[in-house]
Design goal:
CATH superfamily of the largest domain: NAD(P)-binding Rossmann-like Domain
Number of helices: 13
Shape: globular
CATH topology of the largest domain: Rossmann fold
Strand content: 15-25%
CATH architecture of the largest domain: 3-Layer(aba) Sandwich
Structural class: alpha/beta
Radius of gyration: 22 Å
Amino acid sequence: MVIAVVREVHPRETRVALIPEYISRLVKAGAQMRVESGASRSLNISDEAYAAAGASVVTDRKSLLEGADLVLSIRAISGEEVSLLKPDSICISLMDPFNQRTLVETFRDRRVSAISLEMIPRLTRAQKMDVLSYQANLAGYVAVILAAERLSKIFPMMMTAAGTISPARVFIVGVGVAGLQAIATAKRLGARVEAFDTRPEVEEQVKSLAARFLKIDLGETGQTQQGYAKALTEEQLAVQREAMTKVCAVSDVVITTAQVFGRRAPLIITEEMVRAMPKGSVVVDGAVESGGNVAGSRPDEEVDLDGVLVIGLSNLPGRVALHASQMFSANVFNLIISYWDPEQRRFLMNFDDEIIRGCVITHQGEIVNEMISKHYSG
């Protein structure tokens, strides 16, 4: 089987789908590895490193795609490039299938099997393949580092002969993987941390990191099968905003990470809440790529809103691209090797397997993912 790793063409994408370490592992498993020249230039990993790992380095992207049985990328290739692929070939990437219907239908019409890494079920045995969680973990770390660099205060308390410096107050909204890492990082830097999530069951996780959990009575809430918070009603959002406004008003840093699976991120921090914050404080919108949690945030911009800096930088994991690529590579390798037939030396999809049923979107000219199919028809 010919597995191709393409260079990312998105202007702000600094990661690569597979680093040389995992190239060599797939070569040992019997795969023929081909890598587009310059795929890891942003990571200072040379083409020679890929060649030493056993891959063929290809300069012509068109021929690379035309000859591939399986294509690996961080972001999905374009519809025009899908038309270059062989029927019955496979693409593995982040796809955003809920919002990329035209691309999904292009995969279907070309008879290409498209695997969306976002759709890997959150099962215990799938943890080693869970790209979203590993990238979110890094995003939470980066969000805090960004805030600490932009804030005109230090995070820790300091007692000096010149006086005592109070610790920075950090408020984390959304206690998923990214939020938990943001809490842990802010605590390590010495901040006083408070956190909120609509799921009351995460309170113990927050407390285990020595942070305070903000309790707001919202009535019935919950989470999806994928572990994401369910969308709130407008009435619940109003109650939540009122309580959060009081916390924002005394916070030096607010970091939001709240997302709803398959839907636009909820607007949580209103413009009034931002303006109520102390001058010089910082807000990091960690959900800006999926619509944003913060009023006034703009993708890939830093906006001054009445003295409060609102950071809406996308692709936070890409700011620590080497480790993000290392984690992505491990996740993708674990997915491939879990369904690798050593005799045929190829990746085989068994639709009796829950993981495969969950992440394969198109196969043999059909949209086979039940969740995506219902989403389109609805």
